[in-house]
């Protein structure tokens, strides 16, 4: 099964017989992306603490950068002058840039919405007011030059009234049409974004509008992991992905990254994930592991001779670094501690998706999920 759009092709190579999981390959101008896949987040054109060569060595196939932050510093004009994001950050693989909408709307009272676009105050930079239309957003995306870009959308938080979420769906739908009309780079894939909060009827309304208005080569699923319980999220995510979303196009669950949610999301038919969680928790001294989430600040690790995770094949766990050493680095706030834990956490999620993909291809993903739920690793909160 294949879906083509200009320079992009998505092939589904295996489907699990007992779940909705599928394994595929997304072909892009900067390389192939095996799915399901986790995408490390390089917000400001860098995955914090990790060099491009290290990311490649850990198994990273595609990473993210943030449109809002890069539009503010150093600015889209400068990134374009430097040859686009790939040259600017010296990453040769595929890149996805989000729309920046989540960051814009996180400014709360400093944001004003109209049908035309959004006006916001850059409170985390120089405090100036900026007006973005969908056309502006696509111009910036073109200048940044990522392989995959996202439409400008409104991402409502949780809880929110139905009326507020419904208005967000209406705006996002209108803006999707305008983004598609304005987007003119044939070497970029523009994904639409399904909104609708926890309301299944609004999710379906959003999806149908996207399908009717344009031939998007892929779809983001936004507005989840914004304050709701994950069980509540799956009440609508599971039927949305498995029953209603187009079968031959990649599905990207935005902003979700803890291991158990990835495992369950793959079973629903999700292909792509991203989150700052692996590097953010690393900077806080935490690590994913086969024993569950580990807090390396804890005194119990002070004399621990063991590797971080004996079941892990990352450079940190196989490189002779002990839990005692990592505990010392974290307690002393040494940057090497954050770097080593970031390397481990990123590898952990990439390897989890690699193993999930292998299980799908072998037709045993249902067993993979069942086994995962019994493991200490599933205690990852």
Short overview:
The chain is 40% helix and 18% strand. It has 381 residues and is an alpha/beta fold.
Characteristic terms for this protein:
18% strand, 381 residues, 14 helices, TIM Barrel, eight-stranded parallel beta sheet, alpha/beta, four-stranded antiparallel beta sheet, globular
Structural commentary:
It is a single chain. It contains 14 helices and 17 strands. With 381 residues, the chain is of the alpha/beta class. The chain has one domain: Queuine tRNA-ribosyltransferase-like (TIM Barrel), CATH 3.20.20.105. Helix 9 links the parallel strand 13 and strand 14. Helix 7 runs parallel beside helix 8, helix 10 packs parallel to helix 13 and helix 12 packs across helix 13. The longest helix has 27 residues. It is globular and about 60 Å long.
Topology:
Blueprint: E1 2-5, E2 8-15, E3 22-28, E4 31-35, E5 37-40, H1 52-58, E6 63-65, H2 67-72, H3 76-81, H4 85-89, E7 95-97, H5 101-105, E8 111-113, E9 118-121, E10 129-132, H6 134-144, E11 148-150, H7 162-182, E12 189-194, H8 200-213, E13 219-221, H9 230-244, E14 251-253, H10 259-268, E15 272-275, H11 277-283, E16 286-287, E17 294-295, H12 323-331, H13 335-361, H14 365-374
Parallel strand pairs: 5-15, 6-7, 7-11, 11-12, 12-13, 13-14, 14-15
Antiparallel strand pairs: 1-2, 2-3, 3-4, 8-9, 9-10, 16-17
Helix pairs in contact: 6-7, 7-8, 10-13, 10-14, 11-13, 12-13
How many DSSP helices?
A: 14
- Secondary-structure-based class equals alpha/beta
Q: Radius of gyration in whole Å, from Cα?
A: 20 Å
Low-confidence stretches: none
Q: Name the CATH homologous superfamily.
A: Queuine tRNA-ribosyltransferase-like
CATH-defined architecture = Alpha-Beta Barrel
